[in-house]
Every structure is written in structure tokens, then in C-alpha cells.
Amino acid sequence: MTEAATKRPAPATERAIAALAARFGNKLVTSQAVRQQHANVTTWLPNEPPDAVVYAASTEDVQAIVRICAEHHVPVIAWGTGTSLEGHVNAPLGGVCIDLSGMKRIVAVHAEDLDCVIEPGVTRKLLNEHLRDQGLFFPIDPGADASLGGMAATRASGTNAVRYGTMKDNVLALKAVLANGEVISTARRAKKSSAGYDLTRLLIGSEGTLGVIVELTLRLAGIPEAISAGVCPFPSVEAACNATIATIQAGIPVARIELLDALQVKASNAYSKLTLKETPTLFLEFHGSNASVAEQAESFGAIAAEFGGGPFAWTTKPEERSKLWQARHDAYWAVMNLRKGATGFATDVCVPISRLAECVVATQADIAEMKLIAPIVGHVGDGNFHVSVLFDPNDAEEVGRAKRFHERLVERSLSMDGTCTGEHGVGQGKRKYLLAEHGEAALAAMAAIKRALDPENIMNPGKIL
Amino acid sequence: MTEAATKRPAPATERAIAALAARFGNKLVTSQAVRQQHANVTTWLPNEPPDAVVYAASTEDVQAIVRICAEHHVPVIAWGTGTSLEGHVNAPLGGVCIDLSGMKRIVAVHAEDLDCVIEPGVTRKLLNEHLRDQGLFFPIDPGADASLGGMAATRASGTNAVRYGTMKDNVLALKAVLANGEVISTARRAKKSSAGYDLTRLLIGSEGTLGVIVELTLRLAGIPEAISAGVCPFPSVEAACNATIATIQAGIPVARIELLDALQVKASNAYSKLTLKETPTLFLEFHGSNASVAEQAESFGAIAAEFGGGPFAWTTKPEERSKLWQARHDAYWAVMNLRKGATGFATDVCVPISRLAECVVATQADIAEMKLIAPIVGHVGDGNFHVSVLFDPNDAEEVGRAKRFHERLVERSLSMDGTCTGEHGVGQGKRKYLLAEHGEAALAAMAAIKRALDPENIMNPGKIL
């Protein structure tokens, strides 16, 4: 039981909770179990529960909660599915969690316009099941079945981003409740606009610190006529990265291009019952017409061969494809299986692709030198990779090594013009790196924007800034 | 001679000009001709010249100018090539224009990463000439040979946006001088990041009201292996729009898909010596491998035929392609040639593509009813179209009709969930539409951000808000 879980709320918070109880009845919950479930549970950061959880069913509910909390100067934390990896949903200063998981209406699908309007609690899988019959899909796939509101709030991406972009590229417009309780609508449904400041993109990635997202208008893609996918082994990480660069430079519109290092392949072989050669390997997928996916796969195979890779085994059979991507999605569980009882955390640096091989190789050397068990998977078409660091949380010396490893990884990424987080967000875990990444003037501008929109600092305080 | 051009500067401005003269010598110009050239010259908005023009050669120059102006509370207006259509470069409150056209260094091209770093005065054509030998290009093409700093500031797009996106999708990072004289760097060169607020996108489209862009890191594309292009006549605007929707839904990655209405085709036939059938027509371009561009063109031809369009004549020959796109680029001059001595202004609404045919047809009916000469061209893959309204500026009744036509067009677009400006920006001309488009709460949020970053309102005042 954490200290925060048993602490009595501050008097102002108690007054806010009383007002919320009057409005929300049994939609307001203060039990310890529910509060703890609504704080960070996915990584090594501590669980810091809110003082209360309110289940919102509508935009008006969210407005009412924010207004009551604003009146009492009490923090407000938005919650979707809790799959965040950086403590975004923790309540270090206490406060009220708004559970948006019940707001999961698909408000409209505009098939002709390739867009849809949804509530923030709709998850990726729920949306894609709804869209399938219309031949459409939402391409952003971070692995977890996250809520789309949460994906927007953290500027998520994942395996398809190399072709389809990130959340910033796939949200046309959104509605958000600001700290003053007002709802803003950031844009119309037109595909593009030059009408004023881009509030859409300002809210995307703001992690609930500027407003609570209550509606999203998303861009959709047509389900491709054909999909080909395959696996290609390489003699080294450099060879795999260089083949990736050449593939992208050649203009092959690859839909997914994922690196697994040799240790990750070993872990996935064991967990997902694969028989891959235990060497750096690319998993790939191509979308297009039948002719085009065959052409893309063959062009890639030729490039791979130039860099000593291959044979490139590819298929258009759905069942084989599914097995492959299930193994990729299960990479995290495969890693956890390498060392039973260990805790894991995922790093998330992203560098210009030309520096990727150098960055991964130096990181592997660091892993060996620091005697860590830490496989690597990467969205290499974007220069983004994750190291899954396994450690014993009760071994202070090992925890220290794991932390030092992460510091050095972030420093390495920044020295290569990269970022401390490609897609997981800042949350609590990466605040300390933002000064080195952005510099004082840019951070001051972010802080000025935060103060302008949330002068009392009630929106998810203790995150990003 | 406009009144503003002959007016004596305010005392504070005179002090600022004296301080600038001491720092910049003959790089500071106050002659009437130069001042007038640095205000709006491209459309029907009045020419409102600044009190002085300073030619900046470096980021430090821009910082010095902004600091001096801030000290004296004098407006600062950034200027690139002056091709803006909405009075962005006018100085309604006087002030100092920063001419950035001399800042045209291409700082770095990172071919492996498909990006480059440039100064804001680099124009689109200059950059593409520089890149050609490396097999790369920057795909955003608004027609004019605009400065890339100006294109970022107005969130420009153009004919290639349907495939490559707008400036918001093609700027990886930027540097800007804020009202306090500090330089911010908005992001690293990594292809994606979740590290804090998206200052890049906040500055893009802010029209110089939040900061002066002094450096851009742009995403580049590989010059496609093959390009096919062609012209397809349709029996009606609806048929052309419906074929466009079907093309995009089919996932054909069309690079350009441009509508010309019958009057525009007539104008272009006369001006560009073409022999096209005078009926609604699509101009198209496809990028990819040899096999892929042929497949795309053939797939489009089949779709066009379903909607009664065609024959679709296409080619991969560069000279024929160039002639076609030169005619499209010259559409403005062809229009002006329809009525010698007239003034023209270009509207810029953008609607969801499903509403496009209805919007264009209703607009044509309005043009007929209001007895205007006003051909239409459209980036129809994005739902964006321009009406070029020709009128006699000395005929008050006709000017009134042209203005009423524009009001009705914007209302129609907004009623269809569209925007008053797809790519030209707000400037002075469209400020009055923002309340209807965004609502009070969103405009208040924009104003709060403006105050937070520019409390004295010195950055391009009188624009957007």
C-alpha cells in the first residue's frame, strides 16, 4: 500500500469530493482499490493514486467535474485505459481522476471523407472492429489496446507510423474541456485549414495538462486491397539499419519495418514458438494493390541482399501475417519471460535514421558493459527504438545501473539530434530531460502557454513541465 | 499614394528607427518605394506600408530588430517574398518590416534522413534546384515561388498536398525569435517526438504573430522513379468530384488531382494555347515506380469512365507534363486575361470532400445569379477550391456584389463543416470569419496564447486575432 493511497485528502479536496458526490452519486468512487487502479500500474514508477475517481459519461460531465475542481483548486487527471508508460495518470499532488472509458460512442463515420468522430474512451481495437465492414481502418497501432483519447494526449504512434504518421497526423480536429470549464472545438472537418493557431496539434501530446479531450475527429485509411509481410535476417544491426535507410530512400512506401535484435529474436522464438535465426531481423509489411505489394516486397528483397541480408521470406497469406505480427506485439511478454519476476521498463529514444545504427550499436555495447538483460525492438523506419530493461526492483545496485543506462541512452540520443521520447510521452519519467532537449527559451514558452490556459495549474500537474 | 505611406511615424517608432539605423546603417530603408513594396501588393486589400524596412542577414539581426522594437513597443512584421494573398505583410499600425529574403542559406541537406535545414528566405524553387542532383525534392507547391519561411508562417499547401500533406506535415522543426528577443528551437531532427508541447505546429500558421521564423528543418521526398500525368474531361462538376472521391477511397496515391471548371478551361485554352474540351476537367499526376504509375493511371481511367468522364489521356513524357502543369500554374494569369484591367481576388474555402460537388455547384449558381466573372480551380483531393473573382475596383456596386459573394461562399463552407481558408491564411482579410468558424472559447484560447507569448502585441498586430 503506498503512502498516497492511505493519506487523507486535503480539506479543499474533501470539499470538491463532497460537491462531486452531490452531482455524480455512485459515479464518484473513493475506494482504495479503484483509486490505485487509476494510477500508474505499467512500469517502475510508483503508484500515486488520485483522491477520487469520477466516471464521466458526457462532455457535460467532464465540464462539471473540471468546474468543481477549479473552484476548489484541486487537480484533475484524465484517464482512458491506463496503458501509459510514463506515469501520466499518477496523481502526485492528489486530486480527481476523470475516468473516460465510458465515453466510447462512435458518433459518426464519414466513409466518403475517410474520417470519423468518436468519444475519447473508444479504443483502437473497438474502432477498427466497427470500421471493418466499411473497408476502413484507423492505422495508428501502439501495440496496447489504448483509448484514442489517451493516444492523442500522448502523441502516440507505433508500428504503422512510418507510412501513416503519428497521432498528430491523423487527428483532424478535437474537442477539449479547458481548465475554465469551457469546451473548445479546435477545427472543422475539412482536410486542411489555415484558419488560425493549430490548437489541434497543441492539445495532441499535451498529456492532459492543457485540457481534457472529449471528442476526436480522426482520419481513416482504406483497408488495402493487398498486404504482404515477411521476415528478413541480417548479419548485423548496421546492415539492417542501412537496408532500412535504402528502402525509405528508394521511395518504397513500406507500411511497417521493425527491427528485433538477436536477443529479442531469441526471446520471441521461445515465447511465440517461432524458429527464426537468432540474428538482427527486420519484420516488414507492405500495403497496396496486388501488383504493388509484390513489387514492393521484391524491391525490398533486392535491397536487403545488397546489405548481406536475406533470404527475405514474404507472404500475402493472412494467417502467416497474423502470426508474425502477434509475435511482434507480444515482444514485451516475450521479454518478461526471459527473466521471471523481474521488473521491466521501456526506453523510447528516437534519432535521425542516419544515426540509428550507430545509436543501437553503442547502446548494445552499453548493455553488455553494464551487464543488463535488455533486448531491443525498433520502429526503425522512424529511427525510434525501445530497450526493454529487466531488473530486480529489490536490488538497489541493479536499479542504479538500469537508471544510469537510461541517462546515458538519452544523452546519446540528444547528442545525435534525437529526442528522449519518440512516442511514449514525457509524463513524470522524462521531465528531467526536457531542458537538455529543448533549451530554456522553448521550455519557458511552453510554461507560458500552460499558465495562459491553466493559470491555477489544476490540469494534470506534475507532468511534462 | 496611400495615406499610410505619407504619414509621419509615431515618436516611439522614430526612436526605434534611430536605434535601428545606428545598428544597421544602410540595411535600414525608409524610402516610400521600398516601404510600399513591402506591404500587400497582390490582392484587393489596400497597401499599408511599414515605417521602415530592415534587411536581416542572420538570426542575431532578427533578434536585435525585435529587441529594439520591443523596447519601443513598435510592431514587427516579417516579410519573405510578399506573395501572401491576405494582407499578412501589411502594417496597419505602422512598425518595422524585417525583410528575410537575404537569409537564404541552405544550411545542410541530410540526404540519408530525407531532411534539410534552411534559412527562411530560401524559396521553393531555389531549394528544389539545389536538391535535384541528389534525387530529392520538397513537395509543397503553392504555385508562387514563395519563401519557405512565409509558407510555414501561413501553413501553405497547394497541388501536391493530397499526397504529401501541407507545411504542417513537412516541417520537422524550426527556430523562431519570440517577442522577448529569445530564440526558441522547437524540436530535434528526429522524425517524431512526444517530448512536450508541439511548438513547431503552433508556429506554423501563426502568420508572424507569435514569432519570426529564422530557420526551418524540412522533410524531403525522393524524386519518384516515374511520373505520369494527364487530363480527364467530365460531363459535370459532380461527376469530376465523385470520381475524385472514388479515386481517394480506392487508395490510389494520387500526387495531384486538380479541378478546372469549364470557364477556367476556356481561360487556360486561350492563355496557354491548349485545345482542351471546355467542360469540367481534372488534371492529374501520379508518382511511383514505372509499373506503379501506369497502374495508378489505368485505375483512375477506369474510375473516371464509371462517372461518365474520359477519355483519360495520360503520358510519362516530361515535356508534355511540364506544359500541362505550366498551364495549371498560369491559371491566375489566364483568368486575369479574361477581363483586361480588372482586379481579382482568390477565395479559399475547403470542405469535407463529400460536400465538395454540392459546394462547387451552389457556388457556380451564385456566380451566375450575381453576374460575376469567376472561374474555379480546385485542389479537389483535399476539398479545397479557389474562385477567382474579377471585378472593376472603381465600380462600387460590383465590388459590393463580389464581397457579398465571398461572404455567402464562406457561410456555405462553414455550414458544410468547412473552413474559410484552406491554405492562404487569415491575415487581415478573413479575421471576421474566425468567430463563426471556431467559436468564442477557441478564439479566447488563441488570444490567451498570443498574450502569453507577445504581451505587448508587437508581433504582426492586426492579423488573425
Explain how this protein is built.
Two copies of one chain form a homodimer. The first copy, chain A, has 465 residues and is α+β, with helices and mostly antiparallel strands. Chain A has four domains: 3-99, 2-Layer Sandwich (Uridine Diphospho-n-acetylenolpyruvylglucosamine Reductase, domain 2), CATH 3.30.43; 106-222, Uridine Diphospho-n-acetylenolpyruvylglucosamine Reductase, domain 3 (2-Layer Sandwich), CATH 3.30.465.10; 226-333, 2-Layer Sandwich (Alpha-Beta Plaits), CATH 3.30.70; 338-438, Alpha-Beta Plaits. Chain A contains 18 helices and 18 strands. In chain A, the strands form four sheets. In chain A, strands 15-12-14-13-17-18-16 form a seven-stranded antiparallel beta sheet, sandwiched between helices. In chain A, a hairpin with a 5-residue loop joins strand 8 (171-177) and strand 9 (183-185). In chain A, helix 2 packs antiparallel against helix 4 (59-71), helix 10 packs antiparallel against helix 15 and helix 15 runs antiparallel to helix 16. The longest helix of chain A is centred in the last third of the chain and has 20 residues, at 396-415. The relative contact order of chain A is 0.12. The model of chain A has no long low-confidence stretch (mean pLDDT 95). Chains A and B meet through strand 9, helix 9, strand 11, helix 10 and helix 12 of A and strand 9, helix 9, strand 11, helix 10 and helix 12 of B.
